[in-house]
Amino acid sequence: MTPKSEKSRERMGVEETERGSFLYKDVLPFAAMVLVELMVVSGNTLYKSASANGINSYVFTFYVFFIGFIFILPLPFILHRRTSVPVPPINFSIAGKIFMLSVLMYLSQIFGYIGLKYSSPTLSSIMSNLSPAFTFILAFFFRMESIDFRSNTSQAKIIGTIVSISGAIIATVYSGPSVLSNPISINWIVGGILLASQYFLLAFALVAQAKIMKEYPVDVMVVFVFGISGLFVAGVAGLVMAQDLDAWKLKPNLLLVTILYMGFSSGFLNVVIQIWTLRLKGPVYVAMFKPLTIVIAIVMGVLFLGDLLHLGSVMGGIIITVGFYGVVWGKAKEESPSSIQITAPLLQPHHNLEQGPCIH
């Protein structure tokens, strides 16, 4: 073999390696995050469609927790087989904190489902972009964030928070030109308040999660214990709030499809994808995709639910997105990606927490 042919083969090998690295580190994470946002909005759209035929939110939430837990169940056994390091036991204090985290997550999910009944997946997607702003406020309140009014990063986070909340108010109480002939309904306002409350509780859960992970940094075990406690909370609340046995009966219809889909996608697959993307690309990359849910929700709402697109929703969505990126930019500039994941929950992927926590 001539030296020229050897160099040619080496060059081809380098090109193939670079191509494979590009696909793994750039193309695949991008496609994965788009898929995550698509699955989140698809689940909300399915739920909204199924709710038109009557659906008990408490029963639905229990079944979603149950399906998600089935897929989480093997995780501790996989961890035990893949590591030779003994897993530290979870003490009563940690277990209690994880239980309270599951209560927060359950309430958040219930608020979200009822809010969807009163409003639309589009408004839910708009409100989901409030999570960084709410997390920043709560992290500051619990002294996990510091503010320097002379710093550009602090100014960006403060202004972004104010802008995001302003956009949420506009999207909730203002519908646009049609407000002159068809006033916005009280159901829409109630739905907006419930959805905003959902993401406030999610932000609270992120702050609590960050504190738990400092004390017990074994992510798989935290997810597993959360699954058990979340299922218990959802079961007790469901039995208390839905005593009609007929509400618990499942039939081969759209409701069953929605439960299976959301239990698998939001309760399991989204968690796996986002943990992988977080470790490969960092939290800022994951957070960047959240506003994409607004566009997906608008398209799905118009095509599948017959939703009307109001100017107020468009304006509110744009304003919240601007505020969202303001908060994210401020946090990204303030800290390196590695320290963000450990010291502050601001840029953690809040959308998968809509159905369960993503611990990294």
Structural commentary:
- With 360 residues, the chain is an all-alpha fold.
- Helices cover 76% and strands 0% of the residues.
- The chain contains 14 helices and no strands.
- The chain has helices at 3-51, 57-72, 75-82, 92-118, 121-128, 131-141, 152-173, 186-215, 219-241, 254-281, 283-287, 292-305, 311-334, 337-343.
- Helix 1 packs across helix 5.
- The chain is globular, with a radius of gyration of 22 Å.
- The chain starts with a helix and ends in a 17-residue tail after the last helix.
- Mean pLDDT is 77; it is low at 178-182 and 336-360.
- One of its GO terms (cellular component) is membrane.
- One of its GO terms (molecular function) is transmembrane transporter activity.
- Belongs to the drug/metabolite transporter (DMT) superfamily. Plant drug/metabolite exporter (P-DME) (TC 2.A.7.4) family.
How do the strands and helices of this protein lay out in sequence?
Elements: H1 3-51, H2 57-72, H3 75-82, H4 92-118, H5 121-128, H6 131-141, H7 152-173, H8 186-215, H9 219-241, H10 254-281, H11 283-287, H12 292-305, H13 311-334, H14 337-343
